[in-house]
Design brief:
alpha/beta, Rossmann fold, 2 domains, 4-stranded mixed sheet, 4-stranded parallel sheet, 13 helices, 16 strands, globular
């Protein structure tokens, strides 16, 4: 595989065989797909494993004959989690690169900046970001693979119900994902008999959340705290939480579902609960779990290839690429509209995020059973039964 960077943050990824082709044969024998990811910048912990995953599996697909007899050519741009850059790169993918489909969008902000471009162009777009607003309301050409922030709230509140928790505090990041999940938790809390007694926020550059957490600690009756957010913010919240000696359960979101969160939070992460994909506990799944072969296979390949621990974020990219490839095979065509129709018909696809069953009304295709409730014990993920 060849990888080329230039000053505008573009990576063109193709197989060696494709590089050797002449221009005419290249156009005839390749299928160009695109991506814009946050491979550097504040969300690189999302975009870096996503980019590596796409590269790995495009190389594999090409080595095994490609798709419909043609090689895939993957064009990736690094938007560094900047919404304006993401929109610019989306336009380039459509107008300059001529891609027929896109798997990308590491963050909600970058994704939503790209959505109008791909909708207007009629290009299928499978997002790797978390917020429910990406697919609700349904948009004709937009799909996503990660569980939504609304689902995360529901899974957390289900666990609280089981443990007799009904009064909580919230401390949320003000970025796109944190803001969206806060709103979703507010919206569904009443369905689970949850009362939110304290509601604090922090900015993306805040390095100390002690004042907000002190207010939460001083609020009478709080039985648990939820922290919607991703990046370094939740790790800082977790450390400050322990430093203040807050002794009620702390719940994080699937936005921290990677080993980097445990590394950043250190011993303070002990006991933290969060909803996440089965990928993080691949080796702990029962042998008869239909996801086990998929998640263990991906985990092994990713870790052996990169030398890095697996995260659910790379898994989202795996699911998106494979859903796209299967749709392209079924369509037997490079027509974006035909591919879009086949993505929407995805049924029984077993990915790292769960079993996907899409429809015209559901461009995600996952339900709460696809989420595992995890707890961090001794620096590792464990399944909460």
């Amino acid at each position: 595989m060849a990888r080329f960077w230039n000053k505008i943050g573009r990576v063109a990824v193709t197989s060696v065989a494709v590089l050797a082709l002449g221009a005419a044969a290249h156009a005839a024998d390749t299928i160009k797909i695109g991506s814009s990811l946050s491979m550097t910048g504040p969300a690189s912990f999302l975009g870096d494993p996503e980019g590596k995953t796409l590269e790995m599996y495009v190389e594999d697909i090409n080595a095994n004959g490609g798709v419909n007899g043609k090689q895939l050519e993957l064009v990736i741009y690094d938007d560094a989690a900047d919404a304006n850059s993401a929109r610019t790169f989306a336009t380039r993918l459509v107008e300059d690169d001529g891609v027929i489909a896109v798997v990308g969008g590491s963050t909600t902000g970058a994704t939503m900046a790209m959505v109008p471009v791909f909708e207007d162009a009629g290009i299928p777009f499978i997002s790797l970001a978390g917020a429910v607003v990406i697919i609700d309301p349904v948009k004709e050409f937009v799909f996503k693979t990660p569980h939504t922030d609304r689902m995360a709230c529901e899974k957390i509140f289900e666990d609280m119900q089981k443990n007799g928790i009904s009064k909580i505090g919230m401390i949320s990041g003000t970025g796109g994902f944190g803001k969206s999940m806060r709103g979703q938790c507010m919206d569904v809390a009443g369905n689970y008999g949850i009362e939110i007694l304290a509601d604090e926020t922090y900015g993306p550059k805040d390095a100390d959340m002690t004042p907000q957490l002190t207010k939460i600690k001083g609020t009478d009756g709080i039985q648990a705290v939820v922290n919607p957010g991703f990046g370094q913010g939740p790790a800082i919240v977790t450390r400050n939480y322990r430093q203040l000696g807050i002794d009620v359960p702390l719940y994080q979101s699937h936005g921290v579902a990677s080993k980097s969160f445990i590394d950043l939070a250190g011993e303070a992460a002990e006991g933290v609960r969060l909803p996440a994909a089965a990928l993080l506990v691949a080796d702990k799944l029962p042998d008869d779990d239909p996801q086990k072969p998929v998640v263990t296979g991906y985990k092994t390949k990713y870790e052996e290839t990169t030398g890095e621990p697996v995260s659910t974020f790379g898994g989202h990219a795996y699911d998106g690429l494979m859903i796209l490839v299967e749709a392209m095979k079924r369509a037997g065509s490079e027509d974006p509209a035909a591919i879009r129709d086949e993505i929407e018909k995805t049924q029984g696809f077993i990915g790292t995020g769960g079993t996907v069953n899409m429809s015209a009304e559901d461009h995600l295709g996952l339900d709460l059973s696809a989420f595992k409730m995890l707890e961090i014990k001794d620096g590792d993920w464990t399944i909460v039964n």
